[in-house]
Specification:
heterodimer, A: 250 residues, alpha+beta, Phosphatase 2c, domain 1, five-stranded antiparallel β-sheet, 6 helices, globular, B: 289 residues, alpha/beta, Rossmann fold, eight-stranded mixed β-sheet, two-stranded antiparallel sheet
Chain lengths: 250, 289
């Protein structure tokens, strides 16, 4: 199989690019033929510190297939130790020390695409409110893990960098799987964009056409303008935004 | 008027604390509940003045931590503290002496001293372990003079009028008054109402009250009527307090407070640190302990 892939991201309006605390992973060469491809996005919680670092560790670990199908606790422990050693490796003022003690939190959405002679298949895991959509033409075949715009709020359950906040039963990842056909499109979005996407669908609009035009246009110029217009019109909450578009072919 | 304005460094909001430093604060109070990080040397009954100092230090500590990021403290708020007793004046000491409204990042870097306190925390394996946490001190207990609460509200109003002229579309300022409620310059209801009548395009100024009392009484947090309140001072302060905005009520419900559409920003012999958690400056994980 092979894929066409594109990644877009933008920091919250008013913030510097370095304040961006989402993260994403995509294979370095989408054009080559492989048996499977892995993608991930993560959204570090704004209110915590060192969240961008934690989000990056999570997507990289998923991309490298180090987290297992259910977020293996031992793998997470290794990531937590990595995060902790980075944070504790530098002297911090009292408030940064106290904030770091609370830990970083992040969503994680991972997608694995694979293909055999018989069919293309996909598996996904999610903690939090980053979302996956599988499109066939203008139809949304899958919305995962959230199904409608009313499901979003500012207090999702997220993956903690603190062992003391390790996964409780309600924090276990949601999983989903299915099949794909040639010309299906997978969209991975962090929460603000995913909420807009679902709300647009609920209003009878075709947001996938708007997003599809991004791929055909100038990747680096069109996306910030597209987001700016949505934010200015009040349709998109001001937050970091990340979008991966993946089109697999057998 | 929805209390939905984004709080950001470009569009900050404001906190103003009014702290009662009058002579009546020398009386001893019932210890507050939930002060897990109280110093080990704390006596069973501390003075109300110590209660005020603990309350304001804890509120500032939590507000600073709320705004802290890996690169430093983001100026989501300007913060003022007015003390009243021997007159009404800005209460910060040290390098902030005389300052009325100060960016939160400057407050973060200017405590008078930093104590280390011990707190029990979950060890992640079903047990508890002691953890040393840093507790900054900005304010020491003070108790002298009368209780010119009306003048304090008047000065707060003047201070906020200046801030509001520069921030007409910001999330409205939150005023937190910490007192035993025994005003000596008249009924504070009218000046309190004048303060609450100030507005931005996003809503009225919010006034919340922390009542520290010498009476033995179970702490009361965020009541929606004054029926259970023990005396006329508590009822007065309850009546002066703003109703919690709907979004704060939603978060309070998630934190298992028993709130209704009539719930007011008032606590009796309890702390108000939870209000800091009610503030929305971005995604906050619901599994944060």
């Amino acid at each position: 199989m092979n894929v066409e892939q594109a990644a877009f991201h933008l920091q919250k309006a008013g913030n510097a690019p370095g304040d961006y605390e989402d993260a994403f992973y995509q294979p370095s060469s989408g054009g080559g033929k492989r048996r499977s491809y892995r993608y991930a996005i993560a959204d570090g919680a704004t209110e915590m510190s060192f969240s961008g670092l934690w989000a990056n560790l999570l997507v990289k670990a998923y991309g490298d297939d180090r987290l297992g199908k259910q977020l293996d606790p031992r793998s997470l422990l290794a990531l937590r130790q990595q995060w902790k050693s980075h944070v504790e490796g530098k002297p911090l003022p009292w408030y940064a020390e106290e904030k770091a003690r609370l830990g970083a939190f992040s969503s994680l959405l991972g997608l694995r695409l694979s293909a055999s002679r018989a069919a293309g298949t996909w598996q996904a895991i999610a903690v939090g409110d980053s979302c996956l959509f599988q499109l066939r033409g203008s139809e949304v075949l899958t919305a995962f893990p959230l199904k409608c715009s009313a499901d979003f709020n500012n207090r999702p359950v997220l993956i903690s960098s603190n062992s003391a906040d390790a996964m409780q039963p309600r924090e276990l990842p949601a999983t989903a799987e299915g099949q794909w056909h040639d010309r299906d499109v997978f969209l991975l979005m962090t929460d603000a964009l995913a909420c807009w996407f679902l709300r647009s669908k609920e209003a009878g609009e075709q947001p996938s056409e708007l997003l599809g035009s991004l791929v055909k246009g100038d990747e680096h110029g069109a996306f910030p303008e597209f987001i700016r217009i949505l934010r200015t019109s009040g349709k998109l909450r001001n937050d970091d935004v990340t979008l991966l578009i993946v089109e697999p072919r057998r | 008027m929805t209390y939905s304005a984004e709080i950001s460094r470009q569009n900050p909001s404001c906190f103003l604390f009014l702290i009662d430093q009058s002579a009546s604060m020398i009386e001893r109070q019932v210890p507050s509940q939930g002060e897990a990080d109280a110093p080990a040397t704390n006596t069973p009954k501390k003075t109300k003045a110590q209660g005020v100092a603990d309350a304001i230090n804890r509120l500032l500590q939590n507000l600073v931590i709320k705004c802290a990021k890996s690169e430093g403290v983001r100026d989501y708020y300007s913060v003022g503290v007015l003390g009243y007793g021997q007159g009404v004046r800005p209460a910060f000491g040290g390098i902030l002496d005389g300052r009325e409204l100060v960016p939160i990042s400057e407050i973060a870097n200017s405590p008078v001293r930093i104590e280390e306190r011990t707190k029990k925390i979950d060890d992640g394996a079903g047990g508890l372990v002691d953890q040393v946490i840093k507790f900054p001190i900005w304010f020491e207990p003070v108790a002298s003079g009368g209780t010119p609460m009306c003048r304090a509200f008047g000065q707060a109003k003047a201070l906020l009028e200046t801030w509001l002229a520069e921030h007409p579309d910001s999330f409205p300022p939150i005023v937190i008054s910490i007192t035993d409620g025994e005003s000596t310059d008249g009924d504070p209801s009218k000046p309190a109402q004048a303060l609450k009548d100030l507005v931005t395009s996003d809503g009225n100024v919010l006034l919340f009250n922390v009542h520290l009392s010498s009476r033995h009484q179970t702490p009361i947090e965020f009541p929606d009527s004054d029926l259970e309140l023990p005396d006329q001072y508590a009822k007065l302060l309850f009546g002066m307090s703003s109703i919690l905005p709907a979004y704060m009520c939603e978060i309070a419900k998630e934190e298992e407070y028993n709130v209704s559409a009539e719930t007011r920003g008032f606590v009796f012999n309890a702390d108000m640190v939870s209000v800091i958690r009610f503030l929305d400056i971005g995604t906050r994980p619901s599994n944060l302990r």
